[in-house]
Design brief:
The protein is α/β, with parallel strands linked by helices and 358 residues long. The protein has eleven helices and twelve strands. It folds into three domains: 70 residues, Orthogonal Bundle (Helix Hairpins), CATH 1.10.287; 150 residues, Heat Shock Protein 90 (2-Layer Sandwich), CATH 3.30.565.10; 113 residues, Response regulator (Rossmann fold), CATH 3.40.50. Helix 4 runs parallel beside helix 5 and helix 8 runs parallel beside helix 9.
């Protein structure tokens, strides 16, 4: 085994093993609180334990993510339609106790309109938790942190700004490197492994976005800007309304796809396995069937073959995680009209649906 691969596998194993003792520690905290009753001292130190265990959990998660990036170059994403307002608000909710603890000021300005993206909610929350925690780390007590967002053309631009220590020009190009941290004296050590920003950059890029950092130097604060592609608004008249059946055993994915299609005026039904799909198509007429391949029981290939054998003339489109050439060839042979690989770009789906009328 190559040294780098062995090292990365060891890091992954270490991170997994470190998680095991954290669960009973967290479980013990409410037990201690209940046993102590109304005891201020016990409650205070339970808060200390809880806070530090959560910090350790985040460090372990960073280790696992960094190991995954080094081994595979990617982190798996579970994509769906998201409103970035909810993502940002959930991230803020997670870090707010720490901000209050440090007596820092937080300002938030988000636009009233929806900021829709295709992405993994948990991973995008992780991006903004990391960025706000980074700002907290290098901002003194009573300092200020601000978050604002706006929509520009086909992008959502989100800024996290602080009035803390800032970053000198020599370090600025290297802040995205793994294990890179501010060079500081031991009396100012801020903790962490220097992995957070590396993971943040990778996650933003996996969502088709960009991130940049600006600072005028020491004691001038820092500003991180995240740019993500947004789902473009469309005229309801652009795509004629269809009767559509969505078939996917991932309930969250199916529901978000249905919601997106309904926004455009399509009439949509949803089922979660092949047998249900066949039953629906025998009782109701559909213009389009959006069919996942990796279904329980009958897979998508088999479902498509059954539907075609029953004489179904509807357009059947594979929406699947299987994207190799052999997968596309097999879907064509099974009777699919199109093969789309997850995560499906909604704009591309619109183009495919529109092409069906030509």
């Amino acid at each position: 085994m190559k040294p780098d691969l062995a090292k990365n596998e060891f890091v992954a194993m270490l991170a997994h093993e470190l998680r095991n003792p954290l669960a009973p520690i967290l479980t013990a905290i409410p037990v201690l609180r209940r046993a102590a009753g109304e005891n201020a001292t016990t409650d205070h130190f339970c808060q200390v334990i809880e806070r530090q265990v959560k910090n350790l959990s985040r460090i372990i998660n960073d280790l696992l993510d960094a190991s995954h990036i080094m081994n595979n170059g990617v982190i798996p994403l579970r994509n769906e339609l998201l409103n970035m307002r909810s993502v940002i608000e959930n991230a803020i909710e997670m870090v707010l106790p720490q901000i209050d603890y440090k007596k820092q000021r937080l300002q938030i300005e988000l636009p009233p309109e929806k900021m829709i993206v295709v992405g993994d909610a948990c991973r995008l929350e992780q991006v903004f938790i990391n960025l706000v925690e980074n700002a907290m780390k290098y901002t003194p007590p009573a300092g200020s942190i601000s978050i604002d967002a706006n929509i520009s053309d086909a992008s959502i631009i989100i800024r996290i700004k602080d009035d803390g220590e800032g970053i000198n020009s020599e370090l600025l190009p290297h802040i995205w490197d793994a294990f890179s941290q501010h060079k500081m004296g031991l009396d100012r050590a801020q903790g962490g492994l220097g992995l957070g920003l590396t993971i943040v950059k990778k996650l933003v890029e996996l969502h088709g976005g960009k991130i940049r950092c600006h600072s005028n130097g020491p004691n001038t604060g820092s500003e991180f800007t995240v740019t993500l592609p947004t789902v473009r608004a469309k005229s309801m008249s652009t795509i004629p309304p269809y009767q559509i059946l969505v078939v996917d055993d991932n309930i969250d994915a199916a529901e978000s796809l249905c919601a997106y299609l309904q926004i455009d005026g399509h009439r949509v039904d949803m089922v979660h396995d092949g047998t249900e799909a066949i039953a629906m198509c025998t009782t109701k007429q559909y213009d389009v069937v959006l069919l996942d391949i990796g279904l329980p029981g009958l897979n998508g290939y088999e479902v498509c073959q059954v539907l075609r054998s029953h004489g179904l003339k509807s357009a059947i489109i594979a929406i699947t995680g299987y994207g190799q050439e052999e997968d596309k060839k097999k879907s064509h042979e099974s009777g699919f009209d199109r093969h789309m690989v997850k995560p499906v770009d909604p704009a591309h789906l619109d183009e495919v649906l529109l092409s069906l009328r030509r």
